[in-house]
Amino acid sequence: MLITGASGAIGRGLALHHQALGHDVVCVTSQTSIDPNVRSLPQLDWHLDCHYEAYSTRLVPLLSSNRFDQIYHCAGGLHWNGRLPEKSIAQFSPDFFLQNMQRNCLSAMALVQSLDQTMNKSSETKVAMLSAMVGSISDNQLGGWYSYRASKAALNMLIKTVSIEWKRRFPDASIIALHPGTTDSELSRPFQKNLNPNKLYSAKLTAKRLTLAINQVSSSQSGAFLNWDGGQISW
After folding, report:
1. Rounded CA gap, 104 and 99, in Å?
2. What is the 3-state secondary structure (H, E, C) of 48-116?
3. What are phi and psi of 178, to 5 degrees?
4. Which of 169, 105, 165, 167 is nearest to 131 (CA)?
5. pLDDT tens digits along 188-230
């Protein structure tokens, strides 16, 4: 099993959950300081600010020498360096937009493109890309968060498009966009004060839910946008 973004709350939760189940886990981290229990697992340092080519240079050898039955892509970002998502169009910044695209789209595509080079006709790999409900165009009733919404909507389209190609080339493989639910993490912390406490989930619970969701996914669902409970989310 491969988990990218294992230094974040959800990725770390998944790593610890699967380690407890006795699964072999390889972690790709985007930070140097992570949970010491995760640090004991095999790792490949992977910084989100790398150029696209750097992702592939690091990932292709890893994917070529291992056959992963499940891959969770948890790397991404919502805010950094004190910059929060836009509340209005007046706050839109091309640089912030491009950073969102790099962190939330290009990192995912680098993984998929690298994986594409190592799969074969009989591959049964399941790939879960962490997306977000706010990436749903039809569900957008509040506005704001321009760059993050756009990057997740773009990620969803990329996943859907990859799934169409893979159905021809790797019919038993699957790739899905998966909404994890609002998890107690550094990503959600600036926005938690307005949340119903019953709608904020621990990373441990999120990890269990995401594991159940991907275990239930079949190749016929490849390209779907799913909620953590396995329900379909509208595009």
Report:
1. 8
2. CCCCHHHHHHHHHHHHHHCCCCEEEECCCCCCECCECCCCCHHHCCHHHHHHHHHHHHHHHHHHHHHHH
3. -130, 120
4. 105
5. 655 667 767 677 778 899 999 999 999 999 999 999 999 999 9
